Fold:
Amino acid sequence: MREEVEKVLAEEVRPMLAMHGGSVDLIEASADGTVKVRLTGGCAGCPSAQMTLVSVVESAIRSKLPQVKRVELV
Structure:
């Protein structure tokens, strides 16, 4: 599953975050459907980080990979 998540991040999420000076690193994609990510650059520590996680990162991943149950920020 890691490769599939990485593909979604590379194709859909990172280009959007890059427009705001940020990015996202995939930390873990486990078999139970949990994905752990870290926001970097301009997104790290941003007051809107939680909103970005849900509305951008989680939304993109779950729309392409319905087997993902949750996305966590670490």
